[in-house]
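seq:
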Amino acid sequence: MRNLTSSAASGRRIVDVHLLPMGCSIQRESRCLTGAARRPTWVGSQIPSSSNAASVPNASERPRLPSLAAPIGKGMHRFCTVLLAILCLLSNGCDRSLHTTAPAPTTAPLNLAVSANLQLAMQDMEARFERQCPDIDLRITYGASGSFFAQCCQGAPFDVFVSADTRYPRELVRRRLASETSFVVYAQGRLMLWTPPVESGRVGEHAAGDRGLERLVGDAFGRIAIANPRLAPYGRAAEEALKAAGVHPQVKDKLVIGESVTQAAHFAATGSADAALIARSLLETPALARGNHWQVPESLHAPILQAAVVLDRCRCRPAAARFCDFLTGTVGQSILMRHGYSLPNDAS
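struct:
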């Protein structure tokens, strides 16, 4: 092995050449640079002499490997920007998909069987209740209380029974078809005698004594509409009042029987009856508001106490309890009073 040493003005370079068989050589280089410039390394006989020093390439002419510390070019910068935008879109899309696939809150349906006399008042209560309890969807069916009682006994799909009396709800409790703790009296109804405006020439409400019902005996009233006494509490109260006033035998052949109190009111509104004994709340319809009406003395019939009860088959008892609380609460009671009902004086 031999060592060759070369020197330059800018520093000193030591080159160790290891002679191996077959004329191969391996270069090991160490540098001791005293200046900032670097010069190429030459091995063996390629060390330039002073005569061919001009042929040595400049440092700027040597091929350079790309440096990792070099700044990112415009193309790479554009690629990174596009990639980042795609990742943001994918992330946003995944987040949106999580929100859209999440189950939306659903409303719980509550099936109500409501006595027909409450139809106008219940429309107002339904709107107020669903604003107050948007998670509960009221599904209301109107009809005669007696018909609903029979349907409930046969397993009709009702959750709450809002009756026009207390007898039917109590009977459901006795038969263990309704919850006794849910039984509540929510209002007291008023029985009214309605006649067309041409009968007296005046429109308005008047107090009716016994003579108010006695006037039905004359020829001026050929047909008198009442609800079915066997199905509707208001029909039962009308029959009691006619009997208590002593005019039932004279007018029984004039009676036009409606299945419910709303049907009796419809007979009067369409001219199918000349007079009607109906609920005070139904006089708000435009056709009946033009007539004359008298309140039948409560001494002639049993108080029309109206009660509600939650049926045992109810599958949404919390919603049913919230409705009953609303019905007997401040808002529900104010709506009932505005529609002609009075607060119950006796809950028995």
